[in-house]
Amino acid sequence: MFYFRGYDFLIEIDGIIGVVMADLFTPEYKRLKARRPPPDLSTVIDFTSDLHKGESLTKYNGCVSKLDLSRSKTTLVGLKPSDCWEVFTFRDYPGFFFIVNPFQNGYQRYWASRCIKDFPQDVDNVTNLSALGGERGADLWSPFANKLSCDLHKDDPLRKLRWTTLGYHYNWSAQEYHEYKRGGFPKDVAHLSQHLALSLGFHNFSPEAAIVNYYYQDTNMGPHTDRSELDHTAPLISFSFGQPAVFMLGGTTKESAPMSLLIRSGDVCVMSGAARLLYHAVPRILPPDPDGKLTACFSTRKDSDSTTTTAFDPVTYKPDHDESECEKNDEIKTLNANIESVISSLDFSPFEAYLKSSRINMNIRQVLPAGCKSFDDLKSESECETLRYETNDENTKNNENCESPNMEQFLKHL
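and the corresponding structure tokens:
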């Protein structure tokens, strides 16, 4: 016998009454995911729009606060000084940070090109296509870039690309990492994520794995938690490039009602502390603007004076301190020079065509406990298995009936 009481269900079996808490996450996810009719997005927080309108945070009734950061030494070219970032925290989600596009205009071109063109072609990395037996490091970009029409169609091989893993390669079926499935981690991504982490006070963050997700207008990510890493004290850092998306953040179970945020190109979400293991989802990618143009964050100074988008006027890199220790570092100097060189010579036209209807999410995480450089650094294999067992056991308990990001989900539209 069933009784409905508010948001809960009372279930009576053989005279024993139990309470089943209702799922408040999934119905809202399905509402925001729906195509017909289009959902009402008035409850979705849009910080970029608010900032442009000059609206105050008082509209959120104290639930949202602005975090003022001190200036940290800028090490990677293309980022605004950290004391100029618009960073928001949330009363009901301690440990979650939302950073409104910290990139200088034009520099997202570099990161978009890395995610779309370079990472899938690197034989060190794994894609959803190579995981199913396709050629590792296959060039999916050139056939698209060389087409007479750069519109992205469903029959394009590039359109079948759903994810690329860097560093430790995530096993989607077993939901775990292995030492023998590890590639090199890109130095530019490592420096980018470490600078973000350091600016927020995470001094020991070690980027060891990344998943680059490719979203199209008809794709989404169901409710899930990220529990497979052995160190949950380290933050998960997520960058977005391309079309806007709705991001949902809930509680440790789906019984908590979620909040929804609009994520635009360049925005960064950081899940740490109590927020590290919360349910989250991406129910919807927003359609491109009617005029078909990308946002100004991809523009360069010469764009307004030229009919082509390939011209770039490099911004002179000026460190916060001329004699900063980081600026003396040859690796940083090389990375910065390479970023400037790539942007200045990049034919951005095909990338622009791709991004007009797509979104890229690059999320970076630390896999191992602090102080460990590999699984071999753990005290023993039994310790590793214990950590993995505890992680998977928690994953099982907290992900029942959850649309977790497994292989089937990523390939269902192929």
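(Above: one complete record from the training split.) DSSP finds ten helices and 16 strands in the chain.
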